[in-house]
Design brief:
- The structure is a single chain.
- The chain is mainly α.
- It is built from one helix and no strands.
- The chain is 65% helix and 0% strand.
Length: 37
Amino acid sequence: MAPLTMHPNRMDASDLAEMLDFSEVAMRLHGFFNTLK
Protein backbone atom coordinates (compact mmCIF):
# COMPACT_ATOMS: atom_id res chain seq x y z
CA MET A 1 0.00 0.00 0.00
CA ALA A 2 1.26 3.46 -0.80
CA PRO A 3 2.18 5.66 2.19
CA LEU A 4 -0.93 7.81 2.32
CA THR A 5 0.39 9.79 5.28
CA MET A 6 2.67 11.75 2.96
CA HIS A 7 -0.24 13.39 1.13
CA PRO A 8 -3.51 12.39 2.81
CA ASN A 9 -5.86 14.72 0.93
CA ARG A 10 -4.68 14.20 -2.61
CA MET A 11 -3.80 11.25 -4.79
CA ASP A 12 -2.22 11.95 -8.14
CA ALA A 13 -2.42 9.86 -11.26
CA SER A 14 1.07 8.40 -10.88
CA ASP A 15 0.17 6.93 -7.48
CA LEU A 16 -2.99 5.41 -8.93
CA ALA A 17 -1.13 4.00 -11.92
CA GLU A 18 1.51 2.57 -9.59
CA MET A 19 -1.12 0.78 -7.50
CA LEU A 20 -2.86 -0.56 -10.62
CA ASP A 21 0.47 -1.80 -11.99
CA PHE A 22 1.25 -3.44 -8.66
CA SER A 23 -2.12 -5.19 -8.45
CA GLU A 24 -1.79 -6.43 -12.03
CA VAL A 25 1.67 -7.81 -11.32
CA ALA A 26 0.41 -9.41 -8.11
CA MET A 27 -2.46 -11.09 -9.97
CA ARG A 28 -0.10 -12.37 -12.67
CA LEU A 29 2.31 -13.74 -10.07
CA HIS A 30 -0.57 -15.37 -8.23
CA GLY A 31 -1.78 -17.07 -11.41
CA PHE A 32 1.77 -18.10 -12.28
CA PHE A 33 2.34 -19.74 -8.89
CA ASN A 34 -1.02 -21.50 -9.18
CA THR A 35 0.12 -23.09 -12.45
CA LEU A 36 3.26 -24.37 -10.72
CA LYS A 37 1.37 -26.29 -8.05
